[in-house]
Fold these 3 entries.
Entry 1:
Amino acid sequence: MLELLETVSAQLVQKKLMLATAESCTGGMIGAVMTDRPGSSAFYAGGFITYSNDLKTRLLDVPEPMLTQYGAVSAAVAQAMAQGVLAKTNADIAISVTGIAGPDGGSTDKPVGLVYIGYGLKGGPISVSKHNFDGDRGAVRRQTVEATLRHILKLVEVL
């Protein structure tokens, strides 16, 4: 993952882009990985850890009815979280994650390992990808962080 982080951060710096994050199931792991690299203030603005629905609503303006209708782990909420990050920061790129890392909390409709990643550019559409990761809680969270780095790279490479 270190090599991927180096590639992502180099691309962000080269293109003078700032990233901000909204994390739920990863609890700040994306921000921690981004700030593992010295000089990360050149490309990482910061992030929100919004584990509770209350904070998703209060900090990121995720509509409460959306949380009730679709649940916190949903494409709609991932999209709203990413939009909230872009609205609340000066970042050029937003990444959001919401999912079920386990070992509890899964259901038939939303099994452990289900993660939605929202990503997009300021002023552009927000895309959401659905992932079904395998393994225990740590594995699901690590796979989520790696997937977010790949989404960021894909976004930045086309600019």
Note: The chain has one domain: 1-157.
Entry 2:
Amino acid sequence: MHEMSLTESLIEIVAETARREGFDRVAVVRLEIGALSHVSPEAMEFCFSAVAGGTVADGAELDILRIPAKAWCLDCAREVPIAERYDPCPHCGGHQLQPTSGEELKLKELEVA
């Protein structure tokens, strides 16, 4: 479960941001997690509740925005939705797809208390 180490890194970023910006508490941590990122939002939520205790994010809400996967099809020259990497194009069946979204794991925003 690599989500534990990802969550520990997230808390370090939040703590560093709190020191740099001069706030003591975080009310909401907003993340973007892409469908192709190989990160489980449910596991991140579980790990966040375990790791945030005793930090500036103790008691904070973890708000996760799930980003759908899209790709540019080189065969039919259009952006298409995909469920997984290496899926064929849903329009032409081609396999030359370049992901354009869905690979993100991004700390988007903090709401401070």
Note: The two ends are 31 Å apart (CA to CA).
Entry 3:
Amino acid sequence: MNEAMLVSNVFLWAVVLGLVVVVLALARQIGILYERVAPMGALMMDQGPKVGEVAPAFTLDSIGGGKLSVGGHTGRSQLLFFLSPTCPVCKKLLPVLKSIQNVEKGWLDVALASDGDLPEHAEFYRKADLKSFPYALSTDLGMTYRISKLPYAVLIGEDGRIRGKGLVNSREQLESLFTAKEAGVASIQEFIDQRA
């Protein structure tokens, strides 16, 4: 009888130790998986004014009337979204921008920018119902920020400094600019690299 109890205890301890090993292996795999599916922020291309630098100031005519001021110490943050009427991803993000404009209106102004022919953009502005946004056309603005791919966003802080920028294809990438600003880093990738 004692031998049977001894054997069963040894067997149970072997099972428990085996389970501990399996749990540790699963925890490690979950950690690896978490790193692989970590949020992908806006893809920052190392061109134009850098994050942390003072944003170049512009005062531009808006398609809907009035002026669009870019940069400067305004006391509010500004999301400058570069788009094109022929860019399908830009069009996909317009409802997201409207939502962000509504939800983040306490601290953030959203503005649209592009270059090209005014009649084409005016038609796009009307058809896409963009009257709630300032929308300016300026080749100089795009050249200053060295915009080569769209859609591209630049987050300018309330102090007039660039707080985030990059190629954005989704709401998550747009919001990654806000997260990077809050974390005090240039991008989410930089934040993840610092923690690795």
Note: The two ends are 54 Å apart (CA to CA).
